[in-house]
Specification:
Blueprint lengths: L1 E5 L2 H18 L4 E4 L6 H12 L9 E4 L1 E3 L10 H8 L11 E2 L9 H14 L5 E4 L21 E4 L2 H7 L12 E4 L2 H5 L3 E6 L5 H9 L17 E6 L9 H19 L2
Parallel strand pairs: 1-10, 2-3, 2-6, 3-5, 6-9, 9-10
Antiparallel strand pairs: 4-8, 7-8
The protein binds fructose -6-phosphate.
Fructose -6-phosphate binds next to loops.
Length: 265
């Protein structure tokens, strides 16, 4: 894992957007795996800015989101479809037909959604870059602790902790779903490259377990230790429980030196 500890939320957003933009510039028809939640919003704004500046086009890009609630229709502002339209898709030149979420349409059997979603990802040639956030309990997507590390897209019951953490996004009398369809951990691990963003002190413990403790289904994000190409972007708060911060900073310094030498600067 490459651990990059940055000054603040904005620096994490900018570094994340640079990684996405570099890929989309290099591979115009890249396939992105995307996350919702509070964390990636600043990065999406940054991508919208880069697009508006005229430097970045998503015309041929395809996207697959990690998850979607069951029982919330796409036109409900609480759906992850509505989130993606609002936070990113409506403000860039992406073709809506190329944007996918594991949605369970009215009347559709939710058990069929997972395998069909896996097939769509395969048909698109797999995911080039998967963007992830991390739950306070170490979940990635909605793969809650004890999820199979070999899982694929399927229905998951959210933990009470996750429902509680997400309550801030719902009104007092608003229906809050407790079921979702999520990419599995194996689906995420199949991505060619992974970018995980975490900010704020509430994520410090989950981040420490992901990076510095043994791989365990009790901390689903820890499976990323087994992936060859993972970049973790943290602000200082999210990195505050890490024991080896000096080493991670030292590695980044060495990387800058190496790149400087290569660029002749
Ligand atoms: C979102 C998702 C979740 C979030 C995680 C962190 O699509 O799959 O795993 O990334 O719950 O959420 P925030 O960013 O709101 O703290």
């Amino acid at each position: 894992m490459e651990i990059n500890i940055l000054e603040n939320v904005q620096a994490v957003a900018e570094a994340g957007a640079d990684i996405v933009a570099e890929l989309v510039t290099r591979k115009k028809d890249a396939t992105l795996g995307l996350a919702t939640g509070g964390t990636p919003i600043a990065m999406y704004r940054q991508l919208v800015d880069l697009h508006r500046e005229g430097d970045l086009s998503f015309r041929d890009v395809a996207t697959f989101n990690l998850d979607e609630y069951i029982g919330v229709s796409p036109d409900n502002p609480q759906s992850y479809r509505a989130y993606m339209q609002r936070e990113l898709f409506d403000d860039i030149d992406i073709d809506r037909a190329n944007t996918h979420l594991p949605e369970c349409a009215e009347g559709q059997d939710p058990l069929e959604v997972g395998p069909a979603y896996e097939e769509k990802i395969r048909a698109a040639g797999g995911i080039d870059l998967q963007v992830l956030g991390i739950g306070r309990n170490g979940h990635i997507g909605f793969n809650e602790p004890t999820s199979s590390l070999a899982s694929h897209t399927r229905i998951k019951t959210l933990t009470r902790e996750t429902v509680e953490a997400n309550r801030r996004y719902f009104g007092e009398n608003e229906f809050q779903p407790e079921l979702a369809i999520t990419m599995g951990i194996a689906t995420i691990m199949d991505a060619r490259e992974i970018l995980l963003l975490a900010t704020g002190p509430m994520k410090a413990e989950a981040v420490e377990k992901m990076i510095e403790e043994p791989v365990s289904a009790m901390s689903p994000a820890s499976i990323l230790q087994m992936h060859e190409r993972v970049t973790v972007l943290l602000d200082r708060d999210a990195a505050s429980a890490l024991s080896h911060r000096d080493y991670y900073d030292w590695v980044q310094e060495q990387k800058r030196r190496l790149l400087g030498r290569r660029d002749g600067s």
